[in-house]
Amino acid sequence: MKELYKSASALISSFILHPSSFQMSFILHPSKALCLLLLLAAQSAVVRAAAPPRLPQVAVLDLGDTAAAERSTQQIYRSFGAHSTVKLLDRAQSRAAARGIAYAGSLNLTLAEARDLGAALGCDFFITGDAQVLRRTAFERPLYYEAYASIFLVSARTGQLILWDHVSCDEDTAAAAEALLLAEIPRRAERYLLTAVKFVHDEPAERAAAKLRAEAAVLIEEMPGENETTARGFRPPHPYRRLLPRYPEIARRAERTATIDVLVEIDAHGEVGRVCVVRWGGFGLDEEVVETVKRLHFRPATRDRVPVPVRSLLRYNFRPPQKT
Question: Taking residues 285-314, what's their average pLDDT?
Fold first, then answer.
């Protein structure tokens, strides 16, 4: 292969230095032109093989605007930087890019909003979240402190929330609770990195599978708007029984308010097929919604009284229960 590379380099150099003589030679001897093309292709293959693989680029955004949040963000950044499987982007540049599109730390994004943020950051994945140290009271423990970090790992290309984690540590003092949190973050960072690397590895196969599903799928109607002409003769699906997703305890402790949107495929028999989260919120809310939707049964949608499969957007709003 090295000899082939040297031959190609010599031939290409001659072509660059004496192009006119090569043009006449190609006219008289077309086989030489083919030979040069093959050598160029071989040289390109050698260069590609020698080039190191491109590392996934990760942007780490601020987990809040407090001193405790900054320390948690720095710990995540240092933990990721200790591994050679990803390339970290400069935090100041990432912060400026996020502010440039008016991102203010929302943890309840649509796929399109997350993709726009990822494009502005110029990364493959970004980390956002929330970190706080809170004073707590409980019946069995009158006074203690909770230090927590809610960490969101998002694919910049798809906008998907591919990992969400909540690290929480309790102690009698704020400093002790935060020290436990900062010690725990590096232990979990390897799992976050493995998730990102696995996502990169699996993504081509997933895209191919999605293409096959689309080619083999029965034509599914999109739900028409009330005033659209396609709404004439259309009756939307209707659940036989409405089910409400549970508000997770972890979301309650964090007092999360969020809207979760899912795109649901409902077949001509009223059964639920694929469920895709298109606005995520973490804190276990996405999983609760998907689990609830999969338990639903619908009166099927109809077009001119004939049952048809449809793709419908379902929305679930979560807010903390009122304190009594």
Answer: 96
What is the C-alpha to C-alpha distance for residues 254 and 281, in angstroms, rounded to an integer?
Answer: 12
Tokens standing for 117? 């943020």
Kindly state the DSSP code that residue 297 receives in the 8-state scheme.
Answer: B
Which residues fall within 8 angstroms of residue 154, CB to CB, at 6 or more apart?
109, 114, 117, 118, 125, 126, 127, 128, 160, 161, 162
Q: Provide the pLDDT for residue 48.
A: 47
Going edge to edge, which strands form the sheet with 310-318?
Answer: 221-222, 310-318, 258-266, 272-279
- Among residues 78, 79, 84, 77, which one has the least CA distance to residue 61? 77
% of the chain surpassing 90 pLDDT: 67
Take residue 8 and report the two structure tokens written for it: 């190609």
What one-letter code names the amino acid at 190? Answer: E
- Quick one: which H or E segment has residue 106? none
For residue 76, report the phi and psi dihedrals to the nearest 5 degrees: -65, -45
pLDDT at 16 over 60: no
3-state secondary structure of 321: coil
Tell me: pLDDT of 23 over 60.
no
Three-class DSSP labels, 209-276? HHHHHHHHCCCCEECCCCCCHHHCCEECCEECCCCCCCCCHHHHHHCCCEEEEEEEEECCCCEEEEEE
pLDDT tens per residue, range 174-212: 999 999 999 999 999 999 999 998 998 888 887 777 677
Distance CA 226, CA 289 (A): 25
Q: Tell me, what amino acid is at 19?
A: P
Average pLDDT over every residue of 101-112:
97
